[in-house]
């Protein structure tokens, strides 16, 4: 019973439940706290798979959530678990380029060499994605660099297929196999040429990749470079091929000397043989001619058939000898041409090894000599063909079928002799020309050999030459890079030029549509020129009149401008005078008003003085009364014994009297000051010398007085 219960519990824990579903949703939504709380519950696991084969652990690695992975590691997650597709968390992190997740997984003892169902490691996916940081982390943790998947691809091949240059350079610097092949036998160089990535091609060539390797179909890297759209990929491949060829076939000066000796020996022997044979043939021809002359002298009108056959056989033998001589000369000509081709090849090899301007000049001279030799050879061929054609014609004419009778007529015999003499003369001329041309060719060959010897003497040592070549190659590569950039720039410019050419064509078409026939155009031009001449005369006259009018107008304008200035000056003076008059009038009116108001105020002030005098009199009377009262009170105090209250009242009254006296004195002083001030202001007002502040104060007083009068 206990074992059954334990089995049921295990099955319950491995089944997908609500907590697992919530955990997966929390990872998708990015809620760290919820993930931590759900992992703490019973039955929840980060490595459980749902119906689609997803797990929370793999999802966190695929999305690059490092914090989620830390939380999951604290709850004891199996790092090597794979999903339904056979991918581990490390594979998914590398596939999506999350280098921090990769570092965390590798630190938690996740094996870097784990493979999925397709045999790929995490480095394969990182290289395919092109994430340099992820590749660096995997390399630091000793991920295998040259491990092949089921398709035979190492990580470098996947990076090349996807065109990731930086990652390729990193792996090439850290021990990647440059010549590794996939199932189809293709190398990294072939794949780079196929996609048209020149940077990867150059990096692979620098690392010493083999250009001559062939895939399963027999195609090399140069074939794939021709298939790509980038035409600039072929240049580094061709330069590498030429470098390999130069390193494989370095010619020594001793070998050159041996070649020149052999060629001279070969050229010398056929020359002697040809001359000897030509002399023999000439002697035979002379003998035959002598025989013919003798027979013509002692011949009858109808010569015998035997003599004719002898003549015919001798003539045929001469022709055969001439043919043999021509064939021999043609063979010698071919041998000479082969020697020229060999010399050309040797010269080309030597010219490729040269690194100076003098070598270039020598090359041009040699090319010219070779061209001249080729021309002479072609001329010799033409002469040979012409001679051969003449021989064939003669054979056709003099075949055995044409002999109709046993005897031949003397006239026909003479004609035949003339034809044979002419053909013989032509053949001799052709032979002499062939000999002269052959001697020229031999002379030129000797000159070429001398040039080769001089070049050998002027050649630089191989080590120095190799150093120069290496420097030139480096500069050549740099130039190729600049040329590539310039080609791109040229392509853009060519597009612009094409557009401009289209516009030009359209404009030309429009111009052609708008063109007029030449006759009508000339008529119009002549008529227009006459009109233009008339109009130019009129224009000159009108210009002269215009200049006169312009001078008069300028004078009038100057006079008008002077008058305007004077007028403006007068107007400004008038305005200033008018303003001064207006200001004076305003001041005069204000002064009159102020004088009138001052008069009124003086009258009112006199009334006020009278009132004040009255009040002062009244006050003085009251004071006297009070003094009398005080005296009476003092007498009463002596006479009677007053109380304390009366004494206090007396003191109070005395104080009040003193205050009133002081107030009276102050009022008198103030009154006198005010009167003096008013008198001064009135005098200034009468004289017209009043201050602005005083005027303002007076205007305020007047306004106050007016307001008081209106209120009353």
UniProtKB/TrEMBL annotation:
<feature type="compositionally biased region" description="Basic and acidic residues">
    <location>
        <begin position="273"/>
        <end position="283"/>
    </location>
</feature>
<dbReference type="Pfam" id="PF12796">
    <property type="entry name" value="Ank_2"/>
</dbReference>
<keyword id="KW-0539">Nucleus</keyword>
<dbReference type="GO" id="GO:0005856">
    <property type="term" value="C:cytoskeleton"/>
</dbReference>
<dbReference type="GO" id="GO:0007165">
    <property type="term" value="P:signal transduction"/>
</dbReference>
<dbReference type="GO" id="GO:0005829">
    <property type="term" value="C:cytosol"/>
</dbReference>
<feature type="coiled-coil region">
    <location>
        <begin position="424"/>
        <end position="458"/>
    </location>
</feature>
<feature type="compositionally biased region" description="Basic and acidic residues">
    <location>
        <begin position="247"/>
        <end position="259"/>
    </location>
</feature>
<dbReference type="Pfam" id="PF00023">
    <property type="entry name" value="Ank"/>
</dbReference>
<feature type="repeat" description="ANK">
    <location>
        <begin position="85"/>
        <end position="117"/>
    </location>
</feature>
<keyword id="KW-0206">Cytoskeleton</keyword>
<dbReference type="GO" id="GO:0005634">
    <property type="term" value="C:nucleus"/>
</dbReference>
<dbReference type="InterPro" id="IPR002110">
    <property type="entry name" value="Ankyrin_rpt"/>
</dbReference>
<dbReference type="GO" id="GO:0003779">
    <property type="term" value="F:actin binding"/>
</dbReference>
<dbReference type="InterPro" id="IPR042420">
    <property type="entry name" value="RAI14/UACA"/>
</dbReference>
<feature type="repeat" description="ANK">
    <location>
        <begin position="184"/>
        <end position="216"/>
    </location>
</feature>
<protein>
    <submittedName>
        <fullName>Ankycorbin</fullName>
    </submittedName>
</protein>
<feature type="coiled-coil region">
    <location>
        <begin position="546"/>
        <end position="673"/>
    </location>
</feature>
<feature type="repeat" description="ANK">
    <location>
        <begin position="52"/>
        <end position="84"/>
    </location>
</feature>
<keyword id="KW-0040">ANK repeat</keyword>
<feature type="coiled-coil region">
    <location>
        <begin position="319"/>
        <end position="397"/>
    </location>
</feature>
<feature type="domain" description="HAMP">
    <location>
        <begin position="347"/>
        <end position="378"/>
    </location>
</feature>
<feature type="region of interest" description="Disordered">
    <location>
        <begin position="247"/>
        <end position="283"/>
    </location>
</feature>
<feature type="repeat" description="ANK">
    <location>
        <begin position="118"/>
        <end position="150"/>
    </location>
</feature>
<keyword id="KW-0175">Coiled coil</keyword>
<dbReference type="InterPro" id="IPR036770">
    <property type="entry name" value="Ankyrin_rpt-contain_sf"/>
</dbReference>
<keyword id="KW-0677">Repeat</keyword>
<feature type="coiled-coil region">
    <location>
        <begin position="483"/>
        <end position="510"/>
    </location>
</feature>
<dbReference type="InterPro" id="IPR003660">
    <property type="entry name" value="HAMP_dom"/>
</dbReference>
<keyword id="KW-0963">Cytoplasm</keyword>
<dbReference type="GO" id="GO:0016020">
    <property type="term" value="C:membrane"/>
</dbReference>
<feature type="repeat" description="ANK">
    <location>
        <begin position="151"/>
        <end position="183"/>
    </location>
</feature>
């Amino acid at each position: 019973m206990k074992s059954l219960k334990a089995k049921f519990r295990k099955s319950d824990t491995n089944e997908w439940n609500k907590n697992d579903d919530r955990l997966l949703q929390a990872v998708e939504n990015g809620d760290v706290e919820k993930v931590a709380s759900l992992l703490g519950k019973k039955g929840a696991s980060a490595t459980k798979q749902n119906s689609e084969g997803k797990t929370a652990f793999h999802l966190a690695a695929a999305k690059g959530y490092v914090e989620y992975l830390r939380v999951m590691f604290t709850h004891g997650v199996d790092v090597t678990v794979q999903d339904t597709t056979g991918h581990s968390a490390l594979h998914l992190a590398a596939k999506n380029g999350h280098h921090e997740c990769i570092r965390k997984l590798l630190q938690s003892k996740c094996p870097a060499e784990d493979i999925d169902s397709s045999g790929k490691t995490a480095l394969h996916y990182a290289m395919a994605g092109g994430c340099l940081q992820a590749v660096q982390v995997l390399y630091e943790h000793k991920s295998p660099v040259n491990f092949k998947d089921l398709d035979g691809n190492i990580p470098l091949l996947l990076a090349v297929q996807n065109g990731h240059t930086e990652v390729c350079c990193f792996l090439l610097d850290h021990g990647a196999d440059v010549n590794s092949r996939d199932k189809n036998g293709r190398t990294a160089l072939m794949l780079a040429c196929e996609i048209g990535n020149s940077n990867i091609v150059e990096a692979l060539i620098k690392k010493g990749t083999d250009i001559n390797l062939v895939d399963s179909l027999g195609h090399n890297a140069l074939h794939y470079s021709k298939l790509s759209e980038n035409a600039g990929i072929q240049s580094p491949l061709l330069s590498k091929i030429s470098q390999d060829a130069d390193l494989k076939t370095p010619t020594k000066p001793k070998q050159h000397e041996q070649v020149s000796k052999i060629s001279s020996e070969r050229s010398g022997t056929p020359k002697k043989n040809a001359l000897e044979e030509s002399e023999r043939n000439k002697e035979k021809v002379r003998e035959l001619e002598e025989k013919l002359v003798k027979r013509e002298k002692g011949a009858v009108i109808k010569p015998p058939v035997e003599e004719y056959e002898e003549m015919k056989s001798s003539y045929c033998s001469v022709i055969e000898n001439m043919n043999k001589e021509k064939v021999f000369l043609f063979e010698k000509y071919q041998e000479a041409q082969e020697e020229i081709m060999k010399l050309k090849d040797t010269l080309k090899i030597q010219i490729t090894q040269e690194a100076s301007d003098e070598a270039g000049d020598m090359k041009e001279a040699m090319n010219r000599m070779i061209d001249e030799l080729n021309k002479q050879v072609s001329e010799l061929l033409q002469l040979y063909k012409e001679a051969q054609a003449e021989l064939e014609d003669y054979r056709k004419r003099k075949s055995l079928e044409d002999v109709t009778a046993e005897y031949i007529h003397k006239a026909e015999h003479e004609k035949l002799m003339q034809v044979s003499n002419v053909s013989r003369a032509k053949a001799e001329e052709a032979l002499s020309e062939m000999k002269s041309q052959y001697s020229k060719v031999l002379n030129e060959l000797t000159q070429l050999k001398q040039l080769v010897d001089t070049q050998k003497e002027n050649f630089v040592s191989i080590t120095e030459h190799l150093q120069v070549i290496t420097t030139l190659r480096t500069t050549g590569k740099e130039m190729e890079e600049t040329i590539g950039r310039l080609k791109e720039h040229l392509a853009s410019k060519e597009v612009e030029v094409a557009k401009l050419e289209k516009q030009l064509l359209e404009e030309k078409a429009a111009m052609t549509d708008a063109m007029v026939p030449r006759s009508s155009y000339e008529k119009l031009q002549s008529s227009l020129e006459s009109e233009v001449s008339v109009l130019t005369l009129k224009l000159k006259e009108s210009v002269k009149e215009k200049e006169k009018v312009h001078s008069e107008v300028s004078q009038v304008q100057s006079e008008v401008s002077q008058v305007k200035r004077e007028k403006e000056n007068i107007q400004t003076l008038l305005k200033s005078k008018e303003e001064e008059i207006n200001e004076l009038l305003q001041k005069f009116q204000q002064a009159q008003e102020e004088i009138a108001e001052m008069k009124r105020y003086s009258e009112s002030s006199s009334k006020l003085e009278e009132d004040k005098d009255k009040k002062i009199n009244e006050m003085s009377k009251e004071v006297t009364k009070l003094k009398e009262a005080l005296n009476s009170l003092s007498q009463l105090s002596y006479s009677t014994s007053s109380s304390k209250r009366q004494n206090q009242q007396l003191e109070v009254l005395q104080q009040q009297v003193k205050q009133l006296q002081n107030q009276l004195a102050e009022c008198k002083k103030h009154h006198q000051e005010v009167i003096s001030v008013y008198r001064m202001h009135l005098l200034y007002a009468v004289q017209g010398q009043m201050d602005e502040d005083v005027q303002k104060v007076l205007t305020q007083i007047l306004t106050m007085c007016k307001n008081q009068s209106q209120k009353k």
